[in-house]
Amino acid sequence: MSNLSRINTSHLARWWRSIDRVTLICVGILIGFGYILMLAASPAVAVRIGASRDMFIFKQVVFLVLAAVIVCTTSLLSLRGVRMVGWIGFVLALGATFLTLVHGIEIKGARRWIALPMMSVQPSEFLKPFFAVVTAWLLTERKTRAYFPGLLVALGLFALVLLLLKSQPDIGMLSVITTVFLAQLFVDGLSLFLVGAGVASMVAAFIGAYMVFPHVRSRVERFLHPAVGDHYQIDTALRAFGNGGLLGRGPGEGRVKDLLPDAHADFVFAVAGEEFGMLVCLFIIGVFATIVIRTLLKLLRENDPFIAVATAGLVTGFGLQAFVNMGSTLHLIPTKGMTLPFISYGGSSAMSVALTIGLVLALTRNRPNENRFGQFTPAPSPAQRVSS
Question: Which residues, other chains included, contact 316 with Cβ-Cβ below 8 Å and sequence gap of 6+?
Fold first, then answer.
């Protein structure tokens, strides 16, 4: 590490000294669990659909390696780079999400994916991190420029995103982005009365979704009335947790997991419960909690409003996604097809979450000599400090 000492002013050395290494280690742990659990969960699923036993494993290894590269590369960005990537990415993701309505793949009545040669992509996954960065810039820039309509533009973009997601439909993603936006408005200084009004609007929207969309109504009714409808996946997941007990059956020894249709994706947490037990599940929850809580605590000392608002939105989306996945698997909330960050199978999810954490790391870096435009002023040398 001598090349990364404090007298080294290279970009890589500054990055290493300024990055939140605890969060970086937590991400590495989650990626490691993603690989281990894919080895355990995916072969039975692959055989069930007539594919090679190793198909999902090979693909997920590629996804996780790319995710690790994206995290490290994105975390190198300056504040100016974060804003630029946010705007460019948001425009591209918005256009691709609109494209799903025209040329998207329809699965279970929803058009959320675009077919590519080796995989399918869900563009709305990438809307989450880029939307958080763009709205953070709009909300905070209006406080430094007179007559800048940042709030109105942010509300307009939010309405456009909601319209696209409703048209797919993707109520889960719509709920996540709405929560992210409300969290950003709160951090930006919105009054508690208006925040309450926003929460009330979310409740009203949820009731409307229950009335309008049959699949939402079905999931809610199955959650509230266990005797109604098909509960195969939930019942099997709960059996897997019970079979694992405190310490688990051991790697590769789980049997209930082989009966789970989505063991490699939405219900991968149940595989962790069966093979590694409750203690490891609590450890995984602790890793997610460490990332979220540590990031929020860092914001208490943050003076830059853009960093505070953008990071709050990013980490809210990340934490909410993890909570929804684990809560659904444990039958604490109605089921929702949402992946467990870095652990569930899926290219779009892995890339999107990697971008989210990379942007969080870039925003929360310790950068005492960098201004809001990303320009670096070298720190004075020891000799200069002594002479001064």
Answer: 179, 180, 183, 184
Q: How much is the pTM?
A: 0.86
| Secondary structure element (H or E) that encloses residue 334, with its range | none
From the centroid of its chain, how far is CA 282? 19
3-state helix, strand, coil in the chain (%, to 5): 70, 5, 30
Answer with the residue of higher pLDDT: 26 or 14: 26
List the beta bridge partners of residue 120.
115
Strand order in the sheet with 110-115: 105-107, 110-115, 120-121
Q: What angle do CA 180, 183, 185 make, to 5 degrees?
A: 110
Burial class (CB in 10 A: 0-12, 13-18, 19+), 35: middle
pLDDT digits (tens, 9 = 90+) for 241-294: 999 888 889 888 888 888 888 888 889 999 999 999 999 999 999 999 999 999
Q: Two tokens at 45?
A: 């699923």
Distance CA 356, CA 161 (A): 18
Extents of the domains making up the chain: 18-366
Q: Indicate the SS3 state at residue 245.
A: coil
Tell me the three state secondary structure of residue 370: strand
Per-residue pLDDT at 195: 67
Over residues 84-108, the pLDDT tens digits come to 999 999 999 999 888 888 877 777 6
